[in-house]
Design brief:
With about 110 residues, the chain is mainly α. Helix 1 crosses helix 2. The structure holds a DNA duplex (15 and 15 nucleotides).
DNA sequence: AGACTGATTGTTCCA
DNA sequence: TGGAACAATCAGTCT
């Protein structure tokens, strides 16, 4: 089965599940994942321990390390992910508040 | 109501 | 400049 690659695949297979799926008109782009923040802090650490390794190795070890952590370690990362999610929530809220017609605009 | 898939995010590395 | 392994995640669509 195709790995379906990752990232930057945006409109790769589009809505193969049907074809419609308009999703978000404003698309508030979700927040980042805990892994994103985790990588931010580990990228230098992993690379420091494997100075000179290719991105492939870094990414892999990064994932392994991520799971190697305990919920406790993921706390700071999850916290960031949550914080980012909140940010997304605001956009989502605004996106929900978006005047569909022309009335109700609020401030 | 539950299941699922698609879309999205950030890193590093190189041609 | 973008694509690819790594993982999370969530929202909208489908059954």
């Amino acid at each position: 089965m195709p790995k379906e690659k990752t990232t930057t695949r945006k409109s790769k297979a589009k809505a193969e599940t049907g074809g419609k799926k308009k999703k978000d008109p404003n698309a508030p782009k979700r927040g980042l994942s805990a892994y994103m923040f985790f990588a931010n802090d580990n990228r230098e650490n992993v690379r420091a321990e494997n100075e000179g390794i290719s991105f492939g190795q870094v990414g892999k070890v990064l994932g392994e390390r991520w799971k190697a952590l305990n919920s406790k370690q993921r706390e700071p990362y999850e916290a960031k992910a949550k914080a980012d999610k909140e940010r997304y929530e605001k956009e989502k809220a605004a996106y929900n508040d978006t005047p569909a017609d022309d009335d109700e605009e609020e401030e």
